[in-house]
Structure formats: C-alpha cells, structure tokens
Records
---
Amino acid sequence: MADSFVRSVQLKRDEALDFDSYPFSIPAIRQLTDLMLDADVTLLAGENGSGKSTLIEAIAVAAGYNAEGGSRNMNVSTRASHSQLHEHVRLVRGTRTPKTGYFLRAESFFNIASYIEDIPEAVASHGGTSLHEQSHGESFISVALNRFGSNGLYLLDEPEAALSLRGNLALMHRMHDLVAQGSQFIVATHSPILLGYPGARIYVLSEDGITETDYESTEQYELTRSFLENRERFLRHLISDD
C-alpha cells in the first residue's frame, strides 16, 4: 500500500482523563499513547475484557462510522452502549482518502441487517438477498464479497463469531484480494486463522498494555497448536480431577 488511510491512533493525554473510570481504567487503554496502524492489515488480539473491541469501536466512530456498524451513511441506534473513548482519541490519517468502507461488528450485525432490509438500494449493494434470509455466517461473507470494495477502510470486530473454519478462510481470501486493490483492514479477533494473515501487524492487549507480537507468540496460536498436537494430553490436563 502506498499510504494507509489511518496511520495511527493516539490517546489525547493532554486532556483531563479519569484513569480510574471506564474505558480509561482498562490497562491497554490506560497505557495507550500512539498506536501505529499503517500496515495493510492490523490485528488486535487479547482476552475478553482486554479492550480490543472498545478500541476498534473508538477508531471506527472517530473515522465517521456508526457505533453499531455499517457504512458511513448508515445511522442505526438501537441502544447507546458504546464508550466515549472516540471523543478522546485522535486519528493520524494518511494522504489518501478511502473510496468506501465499513464497520462490521458481530454483536450488533442483526440491527444493521434490519436497517438494510428496508432500503432496496442497500439490499442490492449487499448482494441482492436479505441478510436475514441467510445464515449469520453467510450474511457476513455476503457483505465482504458484495459490499466491500477496492480502496476501502474496513474495521472488523470479531467477525469469526459468525464464521465456520471455511468462512474464516474465505474472509481471509477476500481481505487479501482487497488489500491488493488498495484497501486497509483493522480487525479485532480471537481467531487463530485470521491472526495468521500473512504480513499482518499483530497487537496483543492485556494487563501489561499493548504489545506488538509475532503470530507464533500469540496465545491463540500456542493453545491451538497444543490442542491439535496432543488432544488427549491437553484434555486430560484440562479436565482431570484434582
């Protein structure tokens, strides 16, 4: 990529921030300074509650996307549950402007699908078939195949929640095609498949803050490898009686 659409995200530490209150009390957020996002694909990993969804939500809203997801011209608000972090971050943008983009998040996708259902043009741009008439995974892949396009900025929050193993691989293939067409992806994920995207920058969010990590050092890779290499021993250790 000649230049990324979003080069980095910065926490506005010059403002009065209450680090004892959510979301600034989350260790990864509390220690955020200037996080580089200038790779074609940036992946955020970490345990539940580590702040990866909170951070990607803030990046998406700061970039002009609706907190519940969708494209920049969608205005869906069923319940205001997002944090105010987006008001306290600064996006350092590149010289290019995205031609299109999308914020795809698993937890509120039903609301986006319902919004699209009432707009014929939106149904057409998402593949021509109601997203509610497809399985959760099929609808996710349909969005990626039909609504995602070249030179786009795409923010994905745990897309693997809807996808089978083949679905994860199909999404990775689509990401690869779109990166070759000038797109940028920022993805929060638990998936050991998506974390294996070639050449991606991986950040792990934890009690220690935010650490750039190679794929083989992620917990997702290590646990998956241990399970597959010796399932019996792994399960015996996991469920053995004390």
---
Amino acid sequence: MSISVVEKFLSRPATGGENAQTDLIFILRGSDDEVALKGALVASTPINYDGLRRKTWHVEQVGNELWEGTVRYAPQDEVHSDVGTIKLSVDTTGGTTHITQSLETVHKYAPPGKTPPDFKGAIGVTHDNVEGVDIILPVFKFTATKVFAPAGLPDLGALYDLTGKVNSGTFSVSDTVTGMTISLDECECLFNGAKIGEPRSDGNIEISYDFAASPNVTGLTVGDIVGIDKKGWEYLWVRYADVDDNAANVLVKRPIAAYVEKVYDLGGFGGLGL
C-alpha cells in the first residue's frame, strides 16, 4: 500500500521577523516504516516555501499506520554549494587471516642426536594436515563520501553491478577539502558497495562508497617455490605433499605447488560517479 500524505487543516503556523519560521503539518497513512514515511514526507514538500528554506522534518506515530509529520521552514543560511565535494576517511585497523606458511622459520629444535624435520615454512604440520595459524594483517579500508545534486546522481544499476568487483584500471580519488589522494593500480581496489543518504534540507544527497585495498605483489617465495606474482585481490593457496627429509630421515609435508586464483571480476570504476 502506498503512503498518503495530506496536509492538516491547522497547518502552517508561522512566525515573522528575524527568527521567522513556518511549520507545514501533515497526516501520513499507509505504513509504520519510519524511514519510508520520512522519505514520503520530504518527497511531498517543496524545498522552499514563502521565502524560507526547508530545514527539519520529523514524524510521530498517533495510531496504527497513522502518523503526523512536521516540516519546518526557516531563513536560508548563507549558501556555499558543496555539490561535487568528496571527503575521504581511512581505516587501517588490522584484520584476521589464516595462513599455512611463515615468512621465515626462525629456530628449529630436536632432541640430542636428532635433526628437526624441515617443513619449508609450513606451520602446524601434523601427520595428515598443515593446520596453519590465524594472524593479524594490516587492512586498508577507506570511504569516499560525495555530495550530489538530485539530477546528477549516478546510475543505481551501475553501483549494484560494480559491488564486489575490483578495478580494471588505475583508480584514484581525492578529498576535495584536504587534498589527500588515494591512487591504486589495477586489481588493488575492491568496491564493497555504496550507501545513499536521505535528501538533505538543501535537497542534495550524499553517497558513501566503501572500498578495501590490497597491494599487487611480485617475487613471493613459498618453500622452494620462487617468483610468485599475485595481484591485489587474487587468492594464493598452497598444495602440500609428503616428501622424504633425508637429513631428519622422516616423511614430512612440504609445499609442492602454489596457485594464484582470480576470485573477483573486474569492473570499470568510472561508473561510480566519483
């Protein structure tokens, strides 16, 4: 059922003078979804009224699917249009990942007269498995928030389609206030999705874009396997097999192959509207 918005008979109480204001009061029916009701209220009222600017709005429930909404108009503040401005926020708090290979085996110990098996950096090796360990790795996450005029909003279908994709070319975004710039090479940036805010009192809309970054790397080494190249959001995994360790005279599990997998599709981030 659609939401109906009807102005009350006793609407538009007004105050003149330096602190002039006017309230438009409405009855809303057809829903108990507060967010949807606020959206319907804003959509049903003009940005400007009688020389005043829409400043605040709220809804209050008075019955089952029956609400009262008030939109307040007041003098327009000095206008500094911020359409097109972008603000960046960055989060580098660590994330947890599971690894099966160490960067380096620092020490190996065995009983007197014995040689400790060499697992070539494999962690937590048992008779049947390589258990690995959970560690903290740095994660580079950032949010870009841009102000749009209603007529300039990006295509919502493009935002949906690009969610969960990595950049097919170099992607750069700059904070228009601080000048801070984030620039990432192909495959280093993952788009996690966007959040579209409600229309502000000036009618403009903010969209927040969430991203995560992972660097491209080359020349990785896993055990005796060298020269591994991995793009940022590709996935590296290792195959282990039983190998004779002649020095320790035991059968051990060692890396015998490394695989780099593509797990995210590429996308052209130009469709984001940033």
